[in-house]
Amino acid sequence: MTQPTLDIIAIGNAIVDILAPAEDTLIAELALTKGGMQLVDADGAAALYGKMGSAVEASGGSAANTIAGMAALGCRCGFIGQVADDQFGKVFAHDIRAIGVDFATPAREGEPPTAQCLIFVTPDGQRTMNTFLGASQFLPAAALDVAKIESAAVLYLEGYLWDPEQPRAAMRTAIDLAKKAGRKVAFTLSDNFVIARHGDDFRALIADGSIDILFANEHEIAAIADVEDFEGAVAKIAPQVPVLVVTRSEKGAIAIADGERHEVAAEPIKAVVDTTGAGDLFAAGFLAGQAQGRSMTDSLRMGAICAAEIISHYGPRPEHDLKALVAAKLG
Prior knowledge:
Number of helices: 12
Helix content: 25-40%
Distance between the termini: 31 Å
Strand content: 15-25%
Number of domains: 1
Largest sheet: 9 strands, mixed
CATH topology: UDP-N-acetylmuramoyl-L-alanine:D-glutamate ligase
CATH superfamily: Ribokinase
Structural class: alpha/beta
């Protein structure tokens, strides 16, 4: 097996996030599920945008956020995702390339436009996401960069993108390419609503050995295991994957690798401003730690450090020097 030229390549939604503060009363008025994520169509996105106050626009998308965090930590990163040939598509492409990520997926002509995620952030820092998938749901297998997938140490996939048919087929193709090249596949379950729709697919991927590193939060691990008790859910899923990583918000995170359990506390912060991207940046820190050859516990701590940074401000991309933060705490 040849040496990898990339530490990681991810396939995910290429989304521009639009974030605005909102009171709980507005969440109730709009009949949204606080802290959750729902898919909306173009009309729905436009209606919600009209209800937003002053907003911040930033390139986002779950896997893209993870890749941005890993790039900030010095990893060699690539990203595959579909944008449209429009202004938001140009913004996304510029932003991700500007941080050193290899992004070469050709823009798609015509409708629909580049994907958007409208995020209402309540005073407690919870984010309620409303996603218009737009062009991102039309990523074809033909857009995959085969050579880069084969040369990346890890292929990282987000569950959010499993819903549309074309990218789902593309990700299945990418898994086969990575596995045949002897690379690892990491997968994040993304959200309970995704598991509700595609849990059987995910369980099949886990059972057949397609996933080497599985990321979940404590609600998602219960859903995928179909076991309400946290420890029972972990006990059911952990033997089926080489590495299981589960985040637990203020209760920290655990990883089980080859039957050995590792656990860290959450990093202390002054205040939770916005939880958008917390899980994405946790994955970034953990995967960067593994790419750097760190221990499982130190990789978890890197995840916790990155997650703490991201929830201390608005938006899903780091504002502080993640390398410096990690060096100050771990060396």
